[in-house]
Amino acid sequence: MGTRFEVLIPYPEEEPELHVRACAEAVLDEIALLDRQLSLFRKDSYLAHINRNAFVGPVRVDPQLFELIATCRAVGLASRGAFDITVGPLMRCWGFHALQEDSADSPANAIHPAQDELARAATVVGGHLLRLDRDARTVMFEREGMRLDLGGVAKGYALDRALDLLVEEGVSNALLHGGTSTVAGLGPGWKIGIRDPRGLVAQRPVCAPSMRLVASARLRNRTLSVSAPHGRERLVESTLVGHLVDPASGTPAKEILLAAVIARSATLADAWSTALVVAGVDRSRELIDATKEIEAALLVTTTPEPSRSGCGVAGVVRLGPRPELFELVPAGAGSGGAGGPVPG
Amino acid sequence: MSDIDRRDFLKIGTGAMSAFVISAEGSGLLARFAEDAPDLHVAVIGVGRQGRVLLSELNKFPFVKVSAICDVIEGRLRSARRRAPDAVAFTDYRKLLDERKEVQAVFLSTPSHLHREIALDCLAAGKHVYCEAPMATTIDDCRAIAEAAKAASTLFHVGLQLRSNPIYRLARSFVVSGSIRDLVTLRAQYHNKTSWRMPASDASKERALNWKLYKESSIGLCGEIGTHQFDVISWFINKLPLAVEGCGGIFLHRDGREIYDTVQALMTWPGGVTMTYEATLANSYGGQFEELIGTMGAVRLIGDLGWLFKEADAPTQGWEVYAVRQHFHKEEGITLIADATKLAKQGKLKEGVGLPHPPIYYGIGDFLGCVVEGKPSHCPAPIGLRAAVMGIKAHEAVLTGRKIAFEPDWFKLGS
């Protein structure tokens, strides 16, 4: 995952620190194990094993991984393809997903992928091409060249497994996050600030570096995931292109600058935040109304294409049955951590 | 692949899911599982961290059915059930052996000091046994296991997984054929910042859960980790050590534990070569490796990767021209790639860098291959005994501060 995970466990004075520390270590250990299992960039991950073999024949996976893949497919269906773990081949066209060996060869400024290249990649993308057998616990690819990528959901999944562990060890108050973009709050309530992603462009600051918050969320036994195209862009013919590719159009998503999703499970929060960025505002509204299991806040830009020359104007749209879970922060208001605890 | 129709590929079953081939130059052990291999029912006894890793990798062998799991800690059993929902869960391994007659093979991944009794009972019950290394924590226990394994009609295999590792097998063939010429020094290291302490919400279970931290139950870093690494050296150079001395301390984890978090040892081998060994739980720099350094070259192994560094005046054989190389500051190493010749012919040499499976997969695969094909294990109990003796005595040397000369009899089964 290439992500830094942190776990905070406040504990009463009478509790031995050793035990709490051991819980935290066990959590990070489990997360590291899952990273090795799910990484697209490790040759020896279970994911790589699936990608190498699932076209040849059904590949058996462990029950938790099967449930993860099944959940991803369900979110794929519910999001009408906006979230799609088979999208890897398209992302590769745009120069994302450079594997260790490739990165030396991929140019700093890529060329817009050719239409036929995109069309070819699109033939091996789609949740309907995944064959899942629940009894045998196997995964199979319908077409050669398919490639599963769990990057849009791996952090959330790792946090969910970490939460299981903490609860089992009797911890009832903790904050966990992966890369500050997926956060889980266990216990009475953690207030999380959601930072304006503009000004965080990978290449150089477009606006002044921002500590502006767009909203905050209070997590009581809930999880939050934030997806934004900014922060992992590539330069394609002098235009910054976000890394979240729309599986339907084959092109990187543009309208939504940030999607923040609250859900009971970090896996769902992670998957849906990726889906909504791609889906755009109107589709997101429909999808969230239909699914009922998440709340979302979307930072929407009115300039259609983020470019080097400006940030554009943006507003926040809250969707879902309980929009009050997100508190909006007035424009120009104070600083705070990105995806981190806010004092008070 | 494009010339081969998918159905035919499944029948041939080369290297992919339906059949499984382990081969590496010099391995001498080939296992192939046909698509219609009969189910093999297995049990995993001890489902802590190592047991969970085993459960995960066992999914890659479709004919393997985990039908029972066992652990004395209920919480662990619950976690393990999520990974093996079809398995019946037990807290008493004897009940498992009594009730699950369909189990043919057992993976034993309990705390090391508990291996003896369980291994003996499993062998007596007619099961094939894969026993994690170190095989046991005393020479007596190791001998008892080895005697029982000798008398048993089923297979006993020690989890010295590096002996199954294709990179290690390839590296060994270079060493054996003289690529590094005469040994000069040997080095091995394990640096990993971690505490070894398990969460123990139930104070009464703390000593059992933290068996690795107490003298009565643990053979420390030398025993738990060093055993594997000393065994690699012994296997490569085909010798047993002469003596060991060492020291240790607690540098970070001052939490009431009795076992050192940092150790250093010197192990001497026939021919006058000395191995330096260092292991710590206080720092991760440099990770885990083994190095054999000779007059014409050096071999460096880090689990899933290995390199051969040739001296400037070493003779060349020609294959080096197309070898993959990696640079480390001023050093240039030839990356060891299993099946390099075949891959080079296909123009896919670079793809061969690294292993497609975690090292433990190969150990499990070798064991299962032997079970299925009725062949003897290349990692039987006597080898487990020798490896454990090195770890046990290194640990003792570190604890006592005394130099210990290895008695040849320690490495043998009882008289």
Describe it:
The complex is a heterodimer of chains A (344) and B (415). Chain A has 344 residues and is an alpha+beta fold. Chain A has a domain at 181-328: T-fold, CATH 3.10.520.10. Chain A has helices at residues 17-38, 46-53, 63-78, 88-93, 115-122, 154-168, 266-291, and strands at 5-8, 59-60, 109-110, 130-133, 138-141, 174-178, 182-186, 190-195, 213-219, 222-227, 234-236, 239-241, 256-263, 295-301, 314-319, 326-328. In chain A, the strands form four sheets. In chain A, strands 1-6-7-10-13-14-15 form a seven-stranded antiparallel sheet, covered by helices on one side. In chain A, strand 11 (234-236) and strand 12 form a beta hairpin. In chain A, helix 3 (63-78) packs parallel to helix 7. The longest helix of chain A is centred in the last third of the chain and has 26 residues, at 266-291. The two termini of chain A are 32 Å apart. With 415 residues, chain B is α/β, with parallel strands linked by helices. Chain B folds into two domains: 6-163, 3-Layer(aba) Sandwich (Rossmann fold), CATH 3.40.50; 166-356 and 381-409, Dihydrodipicolinate Reductase, domain 2, CATH 3.30.360. Chain B is built from twelve helices and 16 strands. In chain B, strand 4 (105-108), helix 5 (115-124) and strand 5 (128-132) form a beta-alpha-beta unit.
